[in-house]
Amino acid sequence: MDKAEMNINRQALTMIAHKFRTPLSIINGYCEAVQAQHKNTLSPFSAKALEEIGVQGTNLSQLVDKLIAFNQVLALTPQTMEKKEFSLKPLIKEAAAHVLLLEESLSGKPAPLADTMRRGAFVETDCPDQLMLTANAEMLRLCVEELLTNAIKFNNKPEKVIKIQCINHGDCVSLSVRDYGTGIRPQDVGRIFEPFYQVDDDLTGQVVGWGLGLTMVQRILELHGGSVSVVSDRGLGSIFTVNLPVL
Questions:
Q1: Which of 178, 201, 232, 239 has an alpha carbon within 20 to 30 A of 165's alpha carbon?
Q2: Whether the Cβ atoms of residue 207 and residue 153 lie closer than 8 Å to each other
Q3: How many alpha carbons fall within 13 Å on the CB side of residue 189?
Q4: Residue of higher predicted confidence among 55 and 88
């Protein structure tokens, strides 16, 4: 595919995403308004229907946002991408908080009080407070959010523990995201960074998404002169490692 064809495809995807965004905003807005104004008078069926409409509307909105973000990343070049120095740990904390908030909003009702098992997603961060990095903070945040989202998505356990570790190697900084989920099949490992490729099996079922997240992560790191790699054991989980040069 030449540059002209890529530009046309990118413009088409952007137009489609924006065409979806306005009606989705109206659907989600009215859904929330009806739930708020009539929460005590709705029948169980109506309440459940509105709840499901809200969840699916939120899912679709996230898909549209992902498509727009992907196209924005494709349009960047190393020369046009702004970089500045920032502290890495607060960025990771912010990204984790955002992902966990979205996960909580889509996970449904909390577990019964009698259930003592820990449920939900938990992110443990091991990153030196003084670790600084020169990069595009917004793009790197997208990378961390995507890796965390995948770590949650491909885990069917009630408790989803994710560990983030950052190490300064002198000439580069590594950021690894480890999960203890289903892992990746060997035949999928070599393809997960391909655009629109999605892993779907009997453990995870049909996964919501475009199959663009890891492609976007790889592209962002290439723009920074960095790289991303994965090590995975089926049934034990995966470790995605991001490497960024120290400028």
A1: 201
A2: yes
A3: 16
A4: 88
